[in-house]
Amino acid sequence: MTVPLYVQIRESLIERIQSGEWPAGTRLPAERDLAAEFGVSRGTVRQAITDLVAKGLLRRVQGSGTYVAEPKVEMPTHILLSFTEAMRRQGIEPGARLVAVEVVPATRKLAERLRLTVGESVYRIVRVRLGNQQPMALEFSHFPVRLCPGLDRFDLERRSIYEVLREEYDLILVRAEQSLEPTLARRFEAEALGIAEGSPLMLWERVAFTATGLPVEYAKDLYRGDRVRFSMVLHLPG
Ligand code: 16G
After folding, report:
1. Alpha-carbon span 116 to 23, nearest angstrom
2. What is residue 186's three-state secondary structure?
């Protein structure tokens, strides 16, 4: 079986990135120059580049060119961490851009997850999470108002919510039930994250509890597939 030409070109480009010949931030030569260098058509080069953009190894900057992307951020999925802690562990500066903070009545689903009665007040906090100032994830977090009244007064762009819960409300989250599934960015999500509509995202759904089993947070978070990868440690059962 012969390997398609664009795959060969793609592998050569990967080699240049991984060997450090082209470090993060390097601007790729023009398509026509790469085509001449490899002796292939521009379409073949473009196909290889498109693949690497989708994989998150390259990123296109409108009107400027194609660049070697920063390495992906690692999100451990087997330990309970706040976004702030996960970023700091990797030497990345955490941040947030507040999209919305509001009090909403608990829907049936929210009430079930947070063990509330339908209609009880819940804070709905939507934030774009930043790593070194770049959008990484879009978070939709919900907290019962009666557990943390006034949560909306804190500066949730600068402070970690988990830290505010711990320091201001004595709510220490020690356990979470969580699931992950792939999805594609819809228009609002794509705009918030600065990516194209239809880009791959990982959806995390989480309910986080205190040591006494009290559910404090229900979150639905969308992580960028091109910037984040998920890791875990596995042990034999038993
Ligand atoms: C993580 C949590 C999110 C929580 C946030 C708190 C997942 C899937 N989500 O993003 O539920 O609200 O951390 O972050 O892990 P903060 O303490 O930095 O504000």
Report:
1. 51
2. coil
Distance CA 110, CA 141 (A): 11
Tokens representing 198 are 């239809």
Q: Which residues, in sequence order, are CB contacts of 3 under 8 Å at separation 6+?
A: none
Q: For strands 73-76 and 228-231, give the pairing.
A: parallel
Atom of ligand 1 nearest to the CA of 159: 19
Token output for 123: 């804070």
Ligand 1 pocket member 173 (CB < 6 A): no
| 118 token code pair | 């339908």
Give the tokens for residue 91. 């030497």
User: What string of DSSP letters covers 33-84?
Assistant: HHHHHHTS-HHHHHHHHHHHHHTTSEEEETTTEEEEPPPPEEEESSS---HH
What ligand 1 atom has the least distance to the C-alpha of 80? 15
pLDDT tens digits for range 213-223 = 999 999 999 99
- CB neighbourhood size of 84 (10 A): 18
Nearest CA among 100, 170, 174 for reference residue 140:
100
Digit-coded pLDDT (tens) for 183-218? 999 999 999 999 999 999 999 999 999 999 999 999
Straight-line distance from the first to the last Cα atom of the chain, in angstroms, rounded to the nearest whole number: 44
Q: Please state the φ and ψ torsions of residue 129, each to the nearest 5 degrees.
A: -95, 135
pTM of the model: 0.82
Residue 161: CB within 6 Å of ligand 1? yes
DSSP for residue 88? H
**CA–CA separation, 159 and 147 (whole Å):** 18
